[in-house]
Specification:
Blueprint: H1 2-5, H2 9-23, E1 53-54, E2 57-58, E3 61-65, E4 68-72, H3 75-83, H4 94-97, H5 103-109
Antiparallel strand pairs: 1-2, 3-4
Length: 124
């Protein structure tokens, strides 16, 4: 459908989305973020990875405010931030929030431990 309606779509996006679809089932044990050479910045406003409009040519914007760097995936998200920066001053991305956590602490604080003491994630 995309290639038919947007000629050239597959050459730009097709292989990425095919690989993503194969990794989309958690039972396969794959992590879609491994498709990127490095973890992309996460948008301060929408909390999505800054990989738009194309993962190989993102339009990520970085702005410094209050001594912190803020990434935005689009002009729209940057505009929303500019309207009310105070709404985002205490907001953290997932990576910022859990930086420095070990797996045990993360599992405990995110309630990934069952009542019998076993975790809900596989253990080595």
């Amino acid at each position: 459908w995309f290639e038919h309606n947007y000629p050239g779509w597959y050459a730009l996006y097709g292989k990425f989305w095919e690989a993503y679809a194969q990794m989309g089932d958690p039972r396969d044990g794959q992590v879609p973020l491994t498709l990127f050479p490095q973890i992309p910045p996460v948008c301060r406003v929408c909390q999505m990875p800054c990989v738009f409009p194309r993962y190989d040519k993102p339009t990520v914007r970085i702005r410094e405010a209050d001594g912190r760097k803020h990434a935005f995936c689009s002009q729209g998200c940057e505009h929303l931030y500019a309207l009310e920066p105070h709404r985002y001053s205490a907001a953290y991305t997932w990576f910022e929030h859990y930086e420095g956590y070990d797996l045990e602490r993360y599992a405990r604080e995110c309630h990934l431990v069952r009542a019998d003491g076993k975790t809900l994630i596989a253990q080595p």
